[in-house]
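Hi R.,

Here's the chain you asked about this morning:
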Amino acid sequence: MRILFTLFALAASVFMASANDYTDVLEVNINGSISTQTTTTSLNKQTDGTYSFILKNFILTLEGQQMGVGTIDISNVVGVPNNGMTTFVANQIIQIKEGDIASPSGTWTGPLIGDVPVRLMAELRGDQLYAVINIDMRKTLGQFIAVTFGNGGYQIPNSGFEAFHEEGTIDEPNHWHSFASCTGDFASFVSGTPHTFVSSVIRPGSLGKQSVLLTSAKVFGITANGTLTTGRMVAGAITATDPGNHAELDMGKTAKDSNGDPFYSLMNGQPDSLAVWVKFKQGTPSTAYPYATVSASVTDGTYYQEPQDKAYNNVLGSAKYPSIVSKDYQWQRISVPFSYNNTSLQPRAILVTLSTNAAPGQGSIDSLYVDDLGLIYNQDISVSEMKIKDQPLVLADTMTYVNNTSLPVTVDDISVNTNSAKIVTTMEQTTNGGIAHVTVASQDLKIFKTYTINISGAVTNIGVPLDNAATAMSIYNLQGQRMDSMHSGQVYIVRQGNRTIKVIGR
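And the predicted structure, written out as tokens:
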């Protein structure tokens, strides 16, 4: 799947300096060893329109031992707005600073290392910051550190089932829901029967310490499947097969569980597949109904339920696997591809549901362990060709283009043939031309690479001298005519200092 959007650097005078703090889970991957912690990052908007990204008091955990690294401060980060979201890209060599608290290892090692290459790609949606930081310490500490801050709406929170809360007297995984938190006319008949349990039985190779156990149970002689969903369970009918009994999501509803989580899971991507580890056993083997099930549907966030009670047109794509077999009660990894048929919609929420039986009301007293559910995105960011004005470039990390034409180069003249889900292109003007930065990335930003193109010759479509004053801003229409102001909905070229951008008036 190819989602192409071209973005432009921001004009300096458009913004006032500001700072915001964001608190979320920080995942640190050191050569394949993963640890997590809750921390706060700062994103500071500067008066020149760029940003600084600050990760204070960064600490590494290796084999239970903590090492204080320090404060990572990445300045001059380009922030690029698009469809209500701002994307940030930086590729720099920095020096890590001392932390402002006592180091757990006695010394902040970062300032002793010297120059450290770092790469940042981040997205800000509303008050939710998602960032991927690659810190290359292979030359000094022999470590490549991949840091992920936040979720970004690309994964389901607590999909390793390490955190639980009490829903009444029943243990329910955080951000997931069972009959314990259900609604509907018959909720009181099923909500008191536990179907979810904290388990120390984990899948092979898991970095966590817990999983979730789902069990079915008899309620008034009827089998109630052990079911877990990112939405909300509804017990709305006495007959098990009635679609009044279902899992649903609706971002328009404000109800929350006892942990304060809504009955939906945000989704900003279109994952390629769903992977989950399961361990399944039927209490009494059934030849007619032998399967457990897992399903996922990416929606636009409006009301949706499974099983469906009608045809829904708000689903972008789904992944369904209704045939999980026991395999001698051994752990198995299930991988299910998503099929998309309505990609004109914007993804906003995902409904994931697991159940001890694929058929409602069937099975016996069955057991389904679930661990380490993840959404998989295509990581192929290979570039086969890059052109400027239809002229192929010799692919390299840094390339050169000489503009011998009378027409200036704009970002629209740069084309990329790539498998990447996202492309971000920025351009800045220099004395003799300009520098373009082309970043290709996987949809979840976990893999990204930036190419640099040094361009000699004109780089804008405005044939007038650049204002010399660093604080002066000039506005032009697409015909190169200077304007006093911008009108809503019209596209303009804005120049400030050595930056040239394309903006839409508001």
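Helices lie at 110-113, 187-190.

Let me know if you need anything else.
M.
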